[in-house]
């Protein structure tokens, strides 16, 4: 059996179609959803993401602001920029691109963002709201994974979901979301990480296996149950002399062997990747609707 592919491009196009209608409806009321992204320093990967976010905003007819600050920016100067964006009525949501330079306290910056504009869902208020099942925002990558499962018709309720990885931006919120009561969740969740004993015995029990650890090809076919749904969040750049730039992107799952065992699988690239920006845009639109009382 070769697994059916779950493609982020297809699922995100569906969601962008819905977002376009919501944006049109806001614009007809004189509201243009505004998203700002703050980039501190010159990390090349961050520059690419920030450019992609700006381009997508404009494509959707949203107001897009990109603020680039030098690597030497002080924490006070960044906090002042956050305060400015908190107060700017044309901005419904904003985020500070991570990672920040080492001299800046990331937590202090995240805590300074007005929770009603926290489209990354990193502020402890929003993390808490998500955990108690009253989300105002959902973190983009786990929300993207959930949408991929739901929109691909995966039966989630009552199933065993194993999440590999426990980071604050992927693993932990993913687990919290899948254990909530209600549609798209209601599953039994196990989280495994680098200190887990007998990890493969646990992943083999997963009906839905979600992997986010950042280790190329870590999950091999022997770690996967026959017919499982496998979601690979990992993005790892590995050397490939045959590729034009000498490297290529691979996931945390050994795609070629696991696809022969799984019933559905997300490839890398082309799987979860496109969903993250899409769900970020969805959060910005929700923030604008909420402010408008819609
Ligand atoms: N597609 C997207 O849009 C998207 C978005 C976000 C992240 N990602 C990718 O997803 C991956 C994970 O990102 P992250 O931010 O969650 O990473 P992270 O903050 O580095 O966390 C990695 C997690 O994996 C666990 N881990 C590491 N090695 C392990 C091992 N050998 N066995 C079991 N668990 C292990 C760690 O365990 P401990 O807690 O015990 O250290 C940690 O909980 C990365 O490749 C990243 O690039 C992709």
UniProtKB/TrEMBL annotation:
Pfam families: THF_DHG_CYH, THF_DHG_CYH_C. It catalyses: (6R)-5,10-methenyltetrahydrofolate + H2O = (6R)-10-formyltetrahydrofolate + H(+); (6R)-5,10-methylene-5,6,7,8-tetrahydrofolate + NADP(+) = (6R)-5,10-methenyltetrahydrofolate + NADPH. Pathway: One-carbon metabolism; tetrahydrofolate interconversion. Residues 139-291 form the Tetrahydrofolate dehydrogenase/cyclohydrolase NAD(P)-binding domain. NADP(+) binds at residues 165-167, 235. NCBIfam families: PRK14186.1 (NF010783). Belongs to the tetrahydrofolate dehydrogenase/cyclohydrolase family. Keywords: Amino-acid biosynthesis, Histidine biosynthesis, Hydrolase, Methionine biosynthesis, Multifunctional enzyme, NADP, One-carbon metabolism, Oxidoreductase, Purine biosynthesis. Catalyzes the oxidation of 5,10-methylenetetrahydrofolate to 5,10-methenyltetrahydrofolate and then the hydrolysis of 5,10-methenyltetrahydrofolate to 10-formyltetrahydrofolate. Residues 6-120 form the Tetrahydrofolate dehydrogenase/cyclohydrolase catalytic domain. GO terms for biological process: L-histidine biosynthetic process; methionine biosynthetic process; purine nucleotide biosynthetic process; tetrahydrofolate interconversion. This is Bifunctional protein FolD. It comes from the Archaea. GO terms for molecular function: methenyltetrahydrofolate cyclohydrolase activity; methylenetetrahydrofolate dehydrogenase (NADP+) activity. The keyword Lipid metabolism does not apply. Homodimer. The keyword ATP-binding does not apply. CDD domains: NAD_bind_m-THF_DH_Cyclohyd. Its EC number is 1.5.1.5, 3.5.4.9. GO terms for cellular component: cytosol.
């Amino acid at each position: 059996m070769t697994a059916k592919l779950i493609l982020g491009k297809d699922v995100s196009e569906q969601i962008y179609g819905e977002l376009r209608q919501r944006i049109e409806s806001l614009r007809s009321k004189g509201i243009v959803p505004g998203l700002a992204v703050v980039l501190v320093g010159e990390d090349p990967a961050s520059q690419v993401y920030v450019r992609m976010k700006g381009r997508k905003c404009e494509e959707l007819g949203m107001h897009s602001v990109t603020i680039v600050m030098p690597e030497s920016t002080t924490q006070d100067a960044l906090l002042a920029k956050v305060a400015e964006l908190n107060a700017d009525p044309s901005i419904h949501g904003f985020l500070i691109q991570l990672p920040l330079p080492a001299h800046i306290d990331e937590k202090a910056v995240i805590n300074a963002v007005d929770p009603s504009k926290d489209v990354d869902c990193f502020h402890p208020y929003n993390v808490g709201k998500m955990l108690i099942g009253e989300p105002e925002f959902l973190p983009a990558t786990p929300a993207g994974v959930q949408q991929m499962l739901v929109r691909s018709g995966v039966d989630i309720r009552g199933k065993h979901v194993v999440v590999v990885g426990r980071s604050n931006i992927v693993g932990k919120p993913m687990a919290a979301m899948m254990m909530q009561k209600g549609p798209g969740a209601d599953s039994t969740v196990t989280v495994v990480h680098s200190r887990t004993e007998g990890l493969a015995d646990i992943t083999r029990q997963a009906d839905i296996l979600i992997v986010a650890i950042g280790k190329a090809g870590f999950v091999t076919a022997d770690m996967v149950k026959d017919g499982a749904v496998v979601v690979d969040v990992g993005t790892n750049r590995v050397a490939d002399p045959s590729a034009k730039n000498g490297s290529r992107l691979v996931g945390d799952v050994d795609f070629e062997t696991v696809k022969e065992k799984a019933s559905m699988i997300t490839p890398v690239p082309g799987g979860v990747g496109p969903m993250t920006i899409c769900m970020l845009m969805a959060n910005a639109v929700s923030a604008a609707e909420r402010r408008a009382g819609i």
